Amino acid sequence: MIRVLLLTAAIITANPSNIKLLTDNTPDWSDLNSAAKSITASFADDEQKALALLKYVSQIRHQVPPAKDSFSIAAVPPAHPQYGIIYNPIKLAHNYGNTFCVSTNSIVPLMWKKLGKESREFDIVGHTVCDLKYGNEWHHFDAAFGFAYKDTATGKILSCPEVVARNKTNVPSMMCDFTYCNRLDTAKSNACFYQNTRIHNILNRTEEYAKIESVRETLFTEKYSDSYSYNLTLKPFESYTRYFNQIADSLKYYLPVSEADPKNPNAVQSPYLNVVANGVWRFVPDLSSKELLQTLAFQKNLASVNALLQPENPKDTAELIYRANAANIICHAEIKGSFERLKEKSFFEVLFSADSINWISLYRSEGKNVTEKSFDIPFGKNDKINLARTRTHYFIKIKLKAAKKSEEAVLRTLSITTYTIVNPRTLPALTLGSNRVKFESGTGNTSNVALSFHWSEARADGEAFKIKSRSFGKLIKNASEEWLINTAGLRNPTMDSITLSYTPVSNIKDGYSDNEDVGAAFEAGKYFYTFGKCISSGKAVTALPSTDSLITLTDNIAGPRQFGATWPKGSNPVLTMTFDGKKGTPIAGTRILQALPDQNSDYFDSCVISTSRDNKTFKRAGAVTKRQVYDQVTNFLWQNSWDQPVFNNSRNRNIARYKFSSVFDTPDSVKSIRFSFFNSISPLRLEEIELYDKMTKSRVINEIDNGFKLPDPSALKE
Q1: Lowest mean pLDDT among 178-182, 273-277, 363-367, 693-697
Q2: Of 265 and 439, which is predicted with more confidence?
Q3: Using H for helix, E for strand and C for coil, what is the string for 23-48?
Q4: More confident residue, 350 or 432
Q5: Beta bridge partners of 689
Q6: Distance of alpha carbon 294 from alpha carbon 108, whole angstroms
Q7: At what angle do helices 32-40 and 101-114 cross, to 10 degrees?
Q8: CA angle 175-179-181, nearest 5°?
Q9: Cβ partners under 8 Å of residue 646, min gap 6
Q10: Cα separation of 521 and 400, whole Å?
Q11: Are 70 and 84 in contact (CB under 8 A)?
Q12: Average pLDDT for residues 451-480, to the nearest whole number?
C-alpha cells in the first residue's frame, strides 16, 4: 500500500501566474496601461500613436449591442450575482468584442490618458465619439466606425467640433484617410464604408454630426477602467486551449448578449460574435501525484492511497477545495469522476461556490445505496442555468466521510472542464513570415509549462491551393523566453488554436509538427489600389448563358440586400459590356465584387478579361483567379480567422464580399470588354462589375498596418 499524507495547504504561489503570451502583431491587452504602451511603442509621432490606437481598438470589436454579464432573469439561480452592460475595456477586449460606440470610443481616450495626454468624449446625435489632444490641438477619432477625418487641403485631422461645423455647411472637405471598420458594406459601392481601400473622399451624410449634445472631460467608462485585468495562471494537471472559432452550438455553451434567452442560440448569435464557447479549460489530476497539493486551495484530513483519495482519519470528514481560474469569462462548466462508498453511514458530496464562503451542494450520495458510482454534474439544473456562467473563477469542494474505515469513502477519478468565451482578436495570432513570440510569467516556476500554436497554411498548387495543417510546440524553461515561429503559404495562416498546459498532462513537443522550418522569407506584403473614374455605371451587360438581374451588376450598389446575378455550377458564363463612340473608351482596370461563399457556393476559379477595339477580335487584357483572395489589401483586417475569407465556409464572417481587382497589362481604348468566368465546382454569384479609366496597384510593407512591434513586457510596467 502506498500512502501519502496531504498536509493542510495554503494558497500555493509556486505555480506560474500573470502569464503573458505575445506575438509581434497583437498588442498586450492584459491591462489598459500595457495595451496603450504596446500599441504606441513603435511610434515617436503623436499622430501615428493616435492612429495606431484607432486601428487596434477598431480591430478587436464589432459594432453590435454590448455584452452583459447576465442571462435571463428568470433563469438566474439563487446566490448568482447580477451584472449589467460591460464597460471595462480589458474585459471587453479579452472576452466579448461586442460593443457600441459609448464603450468603444471611451477605450481610445482612456489609453490616451494612460500615455499622459488629454482626451475628451462627445455625445453627438445618436453616437458617441472622442477627441485626442496633441500638437496643442484637438483631433477627432471614431473607433466605433474606424474613421479619422482629415481636411483635404491641409491634411490635418479635424476635431469633432470642426467636423460638426463642416457638416452643417455641407462642405465636402473631409477625407477618411484610414479605415479599420468592422462593418458590412451596405451602402452604394462608391460612397460606402469600404474596408479595403486606402483613401476615401467622403462627407458624412448621416445626421449624427448635426450637433454636439454634450462633452465629457471625465470619460464615461473611466471609473470601470481598473476594475478588471487579465490574469492567466496555471497549475499542475491544468491545460487551456483557446480556439479562434466557436467549438459548440448547444444552448448550454451559449452566453446571450441580452436578457433574452432564445431557444436557438444561433438565432441571436448571427452576426454577433464571441457568445458561444471557444475556450476549454481542463483539470484532470493524477490523484497519486505529489504535485496534487499544488493544485488545491485547501485540504484537510486527506490521504492518497494507491492513487485514490480517502480520509486520513476515518473519524473526521476529508475535504479538498479546488479553485478553477479560467481567466476568461465562463459560459459553462461541469465536473466528472467516480467514487466508492461502502457503508451506509459514509457519504460523498460535491459543492460549488463563487466566493469560497457560500456553498451550494451539487451532488450528494448517502444512505443505504452503497456502491461505486460515476458522476457527471453540470453546474445547474438545465442548460439555461450554470452557476459558473459569467464568472472568471469558481471553487469546487469535495467531502468524503467514512463510517469506520478510511477505504469506505474513496475518490477514484476527477475531471473538471470549464468552457469560456474568448475574443479571438486579442489572441496572439501568427502572420505570414517570421513571428516573434514572447512568453512571460510574473511569478512562479515555469519549468513545467508547455504551449503550442496550431494553424493551417494555404500552399500554392498551380492556380489553386492546398491546405496544410501545422503546429509549433515549446517547452518553457524560464520565466521569460522569446523565439521565432515561421509560416509560409499564399497569405496569413488561418489560426486554429493555442494550447497552454502544465507538462504532467501535456504531450506537447518542441518544434514544428512537420519538422520543417520554412524560414523568415515570406513577407506579408499588402496591396492597395487607386482608382480613377468608374465608367461602367449603368452600362448594359449581356451574358451567355443568360440569367436574371444582369442590370444589377452595374447599378453601383453592392450589399446584403442586392445579390446580383447568379449561375449554376459548371455554367462558365461569358459576360460582355459594349461602349459607344468611334474611338472607344479608355479602360485601365476592373474590379469584380463577389459575395462571400456559403454552403452552396464558392469563389469562382478564374476570370479571363479580354478587350476589343472593333467588337470582333478580342485580346487578353488581364485575369483574376481564386488565389487572389489571398492578396492582402491595405487596411483590411487580416488579423485572424474571423476576418479571413478562407474556403472553409467558416461561420461569423463580418465582411460582405470580396473584391477581385485587376490592373490591365496594357490600358487601351476599347469598344467592348468580355469576362470569361470558370466556376466548375460551385455556383457563381456576382454583385458588381466596375471598370475604371485609371487604376494602379501598389505594394506596401512599411506603413501603420505593419508598424506594431513586440515590446518588452517588463518595460511596460509603471
Answers
A1: 178-182
A2: 439
A3: ECCCCCCCCHHHHHHHHHCCCCCHHH
A4: 350
A5: 592
A6: 40
A7: 70
A8: 130
A9: 458, 494
A10: 60
A11: yes
A12: 87
CB under 8 Å to 155, separation ≥6 — which residues? none
Of 14-28, 107-121, 432-446, 552-566, minimum mean pLDDT range = 552-566
Rg (the chain; Cα; Å): 29
- CA-closest candidate to residue 489, choices 433, 428, 429: 433
Distance CA 92, CA 521 (A): 36
Q: 3-class DSSP state for residue 423?
A: coil
E runs forming strands in 160-290: 174-179, 200-201, 212-216, 238-243, 279-283
Among the listed residues 523, 611, 707, 614, the one whose alpha carbon sits nearest the alpha carbon of residue 50: 707
Composition of the chain by helix, strand, coil, percent to 5: 15, 40, 45
Joined together, the cell numbers standing for residue 672 give 467592348
Closest CA to 518 of 467, 454, 459, 443: 459
Buried b (16+ CB within 10 A) or exposed e, 123-161: bbeebbbbbbbbeeebbbbbbbbbbbbbeeeeeebbbbe
Please check whether residue 178 is in contact with residue 635, taking contact to mean a CB–CB distance below 8 angstroms: yes
Q: Does the reported pTM lie above 0.85?
A: no
Distance separating alpha carbons of residues 575 and 360, to the nearest angstrom: 68
Residues forming beta bridges with residue 148, ordered by sequence position: 178
Q: What is the Cα–Cα distance from 664 to 674, expressed in whole angstroms? A: 13
Of residues 715, 713, 705, the one with CA closest to residue 195: 705
In the structure, what pLDDT confidence band is assigned to residue 645 with cuts at 50, 70 and 90? Answer: very low
Helix (H, G, I), strand (E, B) or coil at 306: coil
Return the higher-pLDDT residue of 259 and 279.
279
Which pLDDT score, from 0 to 100, does residue 11 have? Answer: 40
- In terms of residues, how long is the chain? 718
